[in-house]
Amino acid sequence: MSDNNKIAVLGGGSFGTAIAQVLAGNGHAVKLWMRDAAQAEAIRESGRNDRYFPGLTLSPLVEPVTAIQATLETADVIFVALPSKAFRPFVADTRPFFRPGQIVISTTKGIEREGFRLMSEILVEALPQTHVGVLSGPNLAGEMMQKELTATVIASPDARVREETQRLLGCGYFRVYANIDMYGVELGGALKNIYAVISGLAAALQVGENTKAMIISRSLAEMSRFAVALGANPLTFLGLAGVGDLFVTCTSSMSRNFRVGYAVGQGTPLEQAVAELGQVAEGINTLELVREKAQELGIPMPLVRGLHEILYSDMTIQQVIKGLMTAAQNSDVEFILPRQA
Ligand SMILES: NC(=O)C1=CN([C@@H]2O[C@H](COP(=O)(O)OP(=O)(O)OC[C@H]3O[C@@H](n4cnc5c(N)ncnc54)[C@H](O)[C@@H]3O)[C@@H](O)[C@H]2O)C=CC1
Ligand SMILES: O=C(CO)COP(=O)(O)O
């Protein structure tokens, strides 16, 4: 592809804005599509996306737009940064506007309820004429806007997608590593949100450092067990989109999922915690779906089950913790020593 690629980013929230800013910083003109005309106008006038990043000036190469047909028809590379709940309806509505040969990359870290579909699966199914990829990794949008040194993963079976994404996004503060396990990379990004909620909850309870390490390590064991049962490569979970993203979201109060967990740990009812956040916390929806899927497939997921009990049953946090800590002792790395049934 030439250097004159037309680039579109769909979704004017935190991550869409952050990705657009990285692209623009590399000298690429970017159309940042959002559905809200007033928000687009406000960004055009102020040069900032104050709702998400107050006071931070956007590159003049980021152009807020609202005309979706023109945006899609003219783009060569499209990054989708919409919440998972909006993903399928959006693709269904705009499908006729996509062109053969376009690169379409999902940055969404969620799962669709119907059929337990990942976003890349929705894209591949609905837009077979395009080249699909997934971008995921330890990428807090707020830190990317501050140009903190950051790395991410572009996953796609298609070498052109991987190479083009590395070329467009890579710069002095943003490194893009490649993977071909698109399913594993995407599942890693979705699953870690659940464990970020648990970690936020644990932080509110002022747990010790050993406890934090145990939660993160056992989260990794549980999410990789689940993902491998569904067809992911276990080694993906050693990379940025696995342990990297798990680490950042489980340790940072910038993570919205962590913040929801923290609020619940302090006694705020879940609904209120989500409402007060005012942004997407994918982990709450993902928790429900993963719990159902794990039950259906008979995959043990004690942390998922425990969080679900805390959020939706009468059990106290202390009762759930006691149940987890006194359960039968088991294998550390089950890919080496198989887990006892
Ligand atoms: N914020 C972050 O640090 C990162 C977020 N992500 C993922 O990116 C996805 C988007 O998250 P954020 O941008 O952070 O959320 P956000 O809550 O900051 O923004 C979401 C945006 O999508 C818009 N939106 C919602 N429904 C829509 C629809 N039907 N049509 C068009 N626009 C719609 C909202 O108006 C809002 O501007 C999530 O799946 C998240 O997990 C991935 C990496 C990092
Ligand atoms: O995925 C993220 C960082 O990699 C952002 O996490 P939150 O959605 O919890 O803010």
From TrEMBL:
Keyword line: Cytoplasm, Lipid biosynthesis, Lipid metabolism, NAD, NADP, Nucleotide-binding, Oxidoreductase, Phospholipid biosynthesis, Phospholipid metabolism
Recorded metabolic or biological pathway in which this protein acts: Membrane lipid metabolism; glycerophospholipid metabolism
Catalytic reactions on record: sn-glycerol 3-phosphate + NAD(+) = dihydroxyacetone phosphate + NADH + H(+); sn-glycerol 3-phosphate + NADP(+) = dihydroxyacetone phosphate + NADPH + H(+)
Binding residues annotated for substrate, in chain numbering: K109, R256, N257
Active site positions: K192 (proton acceptor)
GO biological process, any: glycerol-3-phosphate catabolic process
Positions with a binding annotation for sn-glycerol 3-phosphate: K109, G137, K192, D245, S255, R256, N257
Molecular-function GO terms, alphabetical: glycerol-3-phosphate dehydrogenase (NAD+) activity; glycerol-3-phosphate dehydrogenase (NADP+) activity; NAD binding
Localisation: Cytoplasm
Domain Glycerol-3-phosphate dehydrogenase NAD-dependent N-terminal, first and last residues per copy: 6-159
Enzyme class per UniProt: oxidoreductase
Keyword Oxidoreductase: yes
Glycerol-3-phosphate dehydrogenase NAD-dependent C-terminal domain mapped to chain residues: 181-321
Major place of residence: cytoplasm
PROSITE patterns given in the database record: NAD_G3PDH (PS00957)
Binding site for NADPH: S14, F15, R35, Y52, K109, A141, R256, V280, E282
GO cellular component, one term: cytosol
Amino-acid positions noted as binding NAD(+) in the UniProt annotation, renumbered to this chain: G11, G12, G13, S14, F15, G16, A141, R256
Entry EC number(s): 1.1.1.94
UniProt family annotation: Belongs to the NAD-dependent glycerol-3-phosphate dehydrogenase family.
Main function: Catalyzes the reduction of the glycolytic intermediate dihydroxyacetone phosphate (DHAP) to sn-glycerol 3-phosphate (G3P), the key precursor for phospholipid synthesis.
Name used for this protein in its record: Glycerol-3-phosphate dehydrogenase [NAD(P)+]
